[in-house]
Amino acid sequence: MAKSQQTFGKKEKEKKRLQKRKEKQQKLEERKANPKSSSLDDMIAYVDEFGNISTTPPDPTKKREKIDAESIEISIPKKEDVEEDPIKKGRVDFFDSSKGFGFIIEQDTKERFFVHVNGLLEEIVEGNLVSFELEQGLKGLNAVRVKKI
Predict the structure, then answer these.
(1) Cα–Cα distance list, 64 to 23, 49, 60 (Å)
(2) CATH no. for residue 103?
(3) Where, if anywhere, are coiled coils annotated (predicted)?
(4) I need a surface site. Which of 16, 66, 88, 121 has the fewest CB within 10 A?
(5) Burial class (CB in 10 A: 0-12, 13-18, 19+), 102
């Protein structure tokens, strides 16, 4: 005599599958019994004067002044031309003559700039007051045309 091929686990899975099917059928019948209107008016949303989304159209009496679309700028504001002295002054913070590089701290902004021996017009040592110009390097601004004051 052979054993039944139906195990407890298989029976439970079948029960769950049937239960899900019944629930799905009930939901379908509920939707058919209570149909939602899917007209365009139900789908439209409005924005009130405070920027909140609402279902009611805005009141035309509360309408604000008209904004000219041409006057709206959607970009980074243009930089005004400010004449800036290209020659800056600073103090040599660190300089290693054996490796040929160092750093200069600008007097006004206290920013630190890299300087290479190729950008020197005169020999410098730590603590010297110098004048220099800035150029864009590979990793940021570099001090060039450096000379003692």
Answers:
(1) 52, 9, 9
(2) 2.40.50.140
(3) none
(4) 66
(5) buried
Residue 117 maps to a domain: yes
Distance between CA atoms of residues 115 and 126, nearest Å: 12
Q: Which domain holds residue 119?
A: 88-148
Tokens of 112: 């630190």
pLDDT at 51 over 80: yes
Task: Please state, in angstroms and rounded to a whole number, the distance separating the CA atoms of residues 123 and 103.
Answer: 14
Tell me, yes or no, whether 138 lies in a domain.
Answer: yes
Helix H segments across 83-143? none
Q: Based on C-alpha coordinates, what's the Rg of the chain?
A: 38
**This prediction's pTM:** 0.46
What's the total number of domains in the chain? Answer: 1
Whether 46 is in a domain gets the answer: no
DSSP E strand stretches across the chain: 46-47, 53-54, 88-96, 101-106, 112-116, 129-137, 140-148
DSSP state of 120: B
Token pair 């789908």: residue: 43
pLDDT at 144 over 90: yes
Establish if 26 belongs to a structural domain: no
